């Protein structure tokens, strides 16, 4: 099999890509970016140093994902539970997000990336929301990879918001009497209309979903790596995709070999 290598890949990335089946790339990957604190601790650095390095990993992974024409990438950047962290760390993460958006919009435009968000965005500080709105506006005309940042996001909160939205829509539309709830209806009222992720990646070894995309991950392949997020690279993403391509997805059916 001869594979056309996309432009912009490093030699190592190209070697890894050549081993993939280009016809069976995932359409959507979700990533739980974990381990920034541990990365810093191992180096006797403050936790925020880990978050800062986490941005470098985001850049490498986003660039690679876009170069291989992944249609959609969703990154868990701040969970609804992350408010429990020390105020100083939260403030740092919010400042980092603002800087990130300001600095990375040119790269997003260069790569034709559309930026979107999921989560209870209205609860974030006004100056954060403003920068977010600016960055989406700047990238709104792009037609390539859809990159979604999950911010103040919780899977259960998303479902609660969806159910409230369903009930509101029904009330405005003749009442609840004839309301028929099915999977299609629930999916339609979630924060985004992307296809469900084919694969979810979690860095730094924990075997949990931590309230990430609970509805959408029902049939996703789970890939957990010990690598801490700041050390995770585009090449690691290609390794994860290679693993994904070895899996047999059955969706509750019997396998092809049966
Ligand atoms: C988890 O590591 C990471 C976070 C809570 C924040 C994720 C943020 C980044 C990757 C950097 C910023 C990203 C953007 C898009 C601006 P942790 O602190 O829970 O690590 P630990 O489990 O080792 O303590």
Task: Describe the protein in words.
The longest helix is centred in the middle third of the chain and has 24 residues, at 87-110. This protein has helices at residues 11-18, 36-42, 47-67, 87-110, 126-139, 155-171, 183-188, 234-246, and strands spanning 28-32, 72-79, 114-118, 146-153, 199-203, 221-225. The radius of gyration is 19 Å and the shape is globular. It has a domain at 24-154 and 196-244: 3-Layer(aba) Sandwich (Undecaprenyl pyrophosphate synthetase), CATH 3.40.1180.10. It starts with 10 loop residues before the first helix and ends in a 12-residue tail after the last helix. The relative contact order is 0.18. It contains eight helices and six strands, in the order αβααβαβαβααββα. The protein is of the alpha/beta class and 258 residues long. Strands 3-4-2-1-5-6 form a six-stranded parallel sheet, with helices on both faces. Bound molecules: farnesyl diphosphate (FPP).
Give the helix level as a range of percent: 40-55%
The Cα radius of gyration reads 19 Å
General form: globular
User: Per DSSP, what share of the residues sits in E-state strands of 2 or more residues?
Assistant: 5-15%
Largest sheet report: 6 strands, parallel
Main sheet strand line-up: 3-4-2-1-5-6
SS class: alpha/beta
The average pLDDT is 96
Distance between the termini: 27 Å
- Number of DSSP-assigned strands: 6
Order of helices and strands: HEHHEHEHEHHEEH
């Amino acid at each position: 099999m001869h594979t056309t290598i996309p432009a912009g890949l490093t030699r190592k990335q190209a070697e890894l890509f050549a081993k993939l089946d280009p016809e069976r790339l995932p359409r959507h990957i979700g990533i739980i970016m974990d381990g920034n604190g541990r990365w810093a601790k191992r180096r006797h650095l403050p936790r925020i140093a880990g978050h800062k390095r986490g941005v470098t990993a985001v850049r490498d992974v986003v660039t690679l994902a876009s170069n291989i024409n992944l249609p959609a990438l969703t990154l868990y950047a701040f969970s609804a539970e992350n408010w429990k962290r020390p105020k100083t760390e939260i403030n740092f993460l919010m400042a980092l997000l603002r800087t990130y958006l300001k600095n990375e919009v040119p790269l997003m435009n260069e790569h034709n990336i559309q930026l979107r968000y999921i989560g209870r965005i209205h609860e974030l500080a006004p100056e954060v929301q403003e920068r977010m709105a600016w960055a989406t506006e700047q990238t709104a005309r792009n037609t390539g990879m859809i990159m979604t940042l999950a911010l103040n996001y919780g899977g259960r909160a998303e479902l609660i918001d969806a159910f409230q939205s369903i009930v509101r829509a029904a009330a405005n539309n003749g009442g609840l009497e004839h309301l028929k709830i099915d999977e299609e209806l629930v999916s339609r009222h979630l924060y985004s209309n992307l296809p469900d992720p084919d694969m979810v990646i979690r860095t730094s070894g924990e075997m949990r979903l931590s309230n990430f995309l609970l509805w959408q991950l029902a049939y996703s392949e789970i890939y957990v790596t010990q690598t801490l997020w700041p050390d995770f690279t585009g090449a690691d993403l290609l390794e994860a995709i290679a693993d994904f391509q070895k899996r047999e997805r059955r969706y509750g059916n019997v396998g092809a070999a049966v």
